[in-house]
Design a protein that fits this description.
By secondary structure, the protein is an alpha/beta fold. Helix content is 46%, strand content 25%. The protein has two domains: 5-156, 3-Layer(aba) Sandwich (Rossmann fold); 173-224. It has helices spanning 5-14, 29-37, 50-62, 94-102, 120-129, 161-167, 173-193, 200-224; strands spanning 17-23, 40-47, 69-73, 86-93, 111-118, 132-142, 145-154. The relative contact order is 0.11. The structure holds S-adenosylmethionine.
Length: 226
């Protein structure tokens, strides 16, 4: 079984271990891959919707690994009756991930492998509140898009995902930071040309975007030295 580059990067960060759950599994490729490669002894897949969960079961059945995986219909980890060593969540917005992690009573003991599609700031704030540090991080190109992913756990020393990417000298960090900087620049232009450009709220937003833009341009400059 061949995973896409994006899911491959998530599987690589997950590595091997005793138990793993893929939350929001949808097609179920990751749990099937874990079962086929024998990288975890206990494997589960969950989804909040019945149809994707049935699809995940079908994927596992067609690959002959259905009996190796537990399937749970659950909002996040709330309806999952087991505890897992590794929790994988990929392809979801960062704020949804933050909600799932914050609501789970045993999350502090887990190792997380996350591939957020958006709202990295909200997810980072949640991880900081939960006292998680970054273990490893990478950016993957898949179908012309760039996907950051990382592993995190309590006790890991790195407190910033971008610093984890810098330490690793990720070859796509400069491009990713440049793309985010361009987005901030466009948002700033929109804000300055907007009807309420003079409001206090717009001023605060402008200050935040400006600071983020400078930090991102600094990252681009840093990667140019590599
Ligand atoms: C875009 S798909 C990502 C599928 C797969 N993880 C991947 O990365 O390719 C998002 C999946 O997450 C599920 N989902 C969304 N919110 C969820 C939640 N709170 N708990 C569990 N699953 C959720 C959706 O039903 C959907 O199947």
């Amino acid at each position: 079984m061949r995973l896409s580059a994006r899911l491959g990067s998530v599987a690589a960060l997950a590595g091997t271990g005793e138990s793993v759950i893929d939350v929001g599994t949808d097609h179920g490729y990751l749990p099937a891959y874990f079962a086929l490669t024998g990288s975890f002894s206990r494997i589960a897949a969950s989804d909040v919707r019945e149809l994707p969960l049935a699809g995940a079961r079908q994927t596992a059945r067609s690959l002959g690994v259905e009996d190796r995986i537990s399937f749970y219909l659950s909002d996040g980890l709330a309806g999952v009756p087991e505890i897992f060593e590794t929790v994988v969540i990929a392809g979801m917005g960062g704020e949804t991930m933050a909600g799932i992690l914050s609501a789970c009573p045993w999350i502090a003991s887990a190792r997380l492998v996350l591939q957020p599609q958006s709202k990295l700031r909200e997810l980072s704030a949640c991880l900081e509140a939960l006292d998680f540090g970054y273990e490893d991080a990478c950016i993957t190109q898949d179908g012309g898009k760039l996907y950051p992913a990382f592993s995190a756990r309590r006790g890991a020393e790195e407190w910033d995902m971008v610093r984890a990417l810098i330490l690793r000298r990720d070859p796509l960090l400069g491009r990713w930071a440049g793309m985010l900087a361009d987005r901030r620049e466009r948002a700033l232009e929109g804000l300055r040309g907007g009807a309420d450009a003079a409001s206090e709220r717009a001023g605060e937003q402008e200050a935040r975007l400006g600071a983020e833009l400078r930090a991102l341009r600094d990252i681009v400059k840093e990667t140019e030295k590599w």
